[in-house]
Amino acid sequence: ATVTKEFNIGWVYGNPDGVFNRPVMGINGQWPIPALFVKKGDTLVVNVNNQLGNETTSLHWHGLYQNGTTNMDGPVGVTQCEIPVGGSFTYNFTVDQPGTYWFHSHTRGQYPDGLRAPFIVEDDEMPFADMYDEEIILSFSDWYHDLMPGLLASFISVSNPTGAEPVPDSALMNDTQNLEIPVLPGKTYLLRMVNMAAFAAQYVWIEGHEMQVVEVDGVYTEPATANMLYMTAAQRYSVLFTTKNDTSANFPIMGSMDQDLFDAIPDGLNPNVTGWLVYDGAKDKPAAQELDAFEPFDDFTLVPHDKEPVYENVNHNVQLDLKMDNLGDGANYAFFNDITYVPPKVPTLYTAMTTGETATDPAIYGINTNPFILAQGEVVELVLNNDDPGKHPFHLHGHNFQVLIRSDDDAGFYDAATSNATIPATPMRRDTVLVRPGGHFVLRFRADNPGIWLFHCHIEWHVTSGLIATFVEAPLALQSSNIPHDHLAACAANNPPTPTAG
Ligand code: C2O
């Protein structure tokens, strides 16, 4: 079926933590923005009208591969131009993958101002369908009282030479701090969880109830028992849980922001958000236990339901060394291989579509986009070495990836010759994965999706400070695809390319 939506994006007011009323970016006058539902196989058409009045925008469908429709992926300067103030853009693509996703603005650091929501793709062939009665959507996020344009300006500035990220004012569940989820006794629920945060990972648990993980980032898994999950920004988990057989008590659902991420912890910060599984509205809503009562689940142990074996015969090795450093202007930036990403004036997709044979030469994309050219069908092994004392959740557009190795803290750079890491035979696949402080990870994916795909830290502060690489996948196949060649001509005309040094 075709699902058509009209999205008028505009400012409304929101006060999700009950402390501070502020402007937020809503859709059709609504905020929180309701979850978007489609069925696997549907074509989604979203007519976006930018009614913000003071900011450009765009939307990204986080986790969707956009196979054949890289031009619908959403990042500005990559696959499209900004949707100007008063302008419109139609996203039109077929959704061929089931699971739990989200959509968010992919313009500058905009989505923490509220322009994000869960995106659920229902599946008639869901392998666990007969194991649950009802479905519940649960989003998490961090929340700032200040608006992003001001926060971003002071984040990247001489007055913040260490690059300390603004600390959120509070944590939210379904965009509130008073969430009550009514449940019935003796039932099993599928709980679809999304962390839509700008920055903070959260520890998540439901007191008195075990969870069975059955999906991560759109990949069904063999059921695995968890008491507590650690969800980085942009990660998703679906879990099954079964309610008690009686209604004698209600139970807290907890989210707790990972304070290790924060350079300094402001006085009075409450890192927690509590909601409740409500069996009986007339009974108490008890307080939660301490975080330390639980062990976080290790997602590295997950096995995909399809048991896809590890991809062998690597054709292409990519190594990205991450560091943070100051540039001549005194501000702090993030680097891959000594390059801090600067968005090109002309979207990378337009360059790939219009440069003929030379589209396979990374130099034409501009060195500051950190371009890597992938040949169609090759197996790519991506090694990331984190030469920074922070945790970073990395996301790849257009694909998920197998996670072969994920080191502990301070393991240093990966060295294939000396590594004694055990590689799982059927590795976990997901689209967002955490690298530990001073550690590394090794991922593999197959270049089976021609397009322009970003790989970046999903901490919105680090997107702005340049922690991004660009995969230009099979550019010649893109040129002969159905993607309209004039897709970006208008904005390219407004931003003539600057010749790049070879
Ligand atoms: Cu959730 Cu580059 O995106």
TrEMBL record:
Keyword Secreted: no
GO biological process, one term: cellular response to iron ion starvation
Location of the Plastocyanin-like domain: 10-125, 135-282, 341-475
Keywords assigned: Cell membrane, Copper, Glycoprotein, Ion transport, Iron, Iron transport, Membrane, Metal-binding, Oxidoreductase, Repeat, Signal, Transmembrane, Transmembrane helix, Transport
Location in the cell: Cell membrane
GO molecular function terms listed in the Swiss-Prot or TrEMBL record: copper ion binding; ferroxidase activity
Highest taxon listed in the record's lineage: Eukaryota
Membrane topology label: Single-pass type I membrane protein
Principal place of residence: membrane
GO cellular component: high-affinity iron permease complex
UniProt family annotation: Belongs to the multicopper oxidase family.
Name by which UniProt lists this protein: Multicopper like protein
Originating species: Pseudovirgaria hyperparasitica
